[in-house]
Amino acid sequence: MIRDEELNRLIRYAQGMGLSVRFMPYVRGSDVSAEWHNDGSQITIYTTSRCSKLEKILSLIHELGHHKAFVNNDREVDPKIDEALDSEEKRHRKRVWNMEIHDSKYWEEIYRDTNCQFGLDRLEMQRELDIWRYEFLYENDREASIKERRAKKKELKKKYRC
Fold first, then answer.
1. What whole-number distance in Å separates Cα of residue 123 and Cα of residue 73?
2. What integer pLDDT is reported at residue 84 of this predicted model?
3. How confident is the model at residue 26, as a pLDDT?
């Protein structure tokens, strides 16, 4: 019940910023669990039957962080970021990693604005995990494997006691 209310508040928050929020089935084999459309029109969250409400909430907060950065940049997407998102070059992955770090600074503000009730430590754990994934991609020229992601998540759960 609490998570349903939080999710609804986040959706209304997004709508208040001119976004539509869509939930779509996850595409097997994809590494994309959510996306913010860089024209500032929509957020899509990809879900599976095993996706918890908290995971949906955290994905939505992540994507809303990108939108808040977009709004604070006069609704302009940096052309270098746009180019980096379509590139496999290492220097571009570094730019995307830095963008993720920058945009995650809005997460706590979104959390507070929407009166989320789950522990702030869970949000911090998710931020660290997300940033780690982009760092891993930059440093290793590949996405982290499922085994590597699980190990990192286990390490962070221990660290944050989640």
1. 24
2. 72
3. 92
Question: What tokens does 105 get?
Answer: 């600074």
Instruction: Give me 159's structure tokens.
Output: 């660290």
| H/E stretch holding 44 | strand 42-47
Continuous H helices in 114-145: 120-140
Q: Helices marked H in 24-85 — which ranges? A: 53-72, 79-85
Contact 22, 128 (CB under 8 A): no
Beta pairing class for 42-47 and 34-36:
antiparallel
pLDDT for 93? 87
Token pair 């809005």: residue: 106
Q: Are 118 and 57 in contact (CB under 8 A)?
A: yes
Nearest to 99 by CA among 122, 124, 121, 79: 79
Q: Give pLDDT tens digits for 55-87.
A: 999 999 999 999 999 999 888 777 777 777 777
As a whole-number percent, the residues of the chain with pLDDT over 70 amount to 100
Beta strands in 73-129 (DSSP E): none
- Spatial distance between the Cα atoms of 140 and 134, rounded to a whole number of angstroms: 10
Q: Which residue type sits at 85?
A: L
- In the chain, where are the structural domains located? 2-160
Q: Which residues sit opposite 44 in a β-bridge?
A: 22, 35
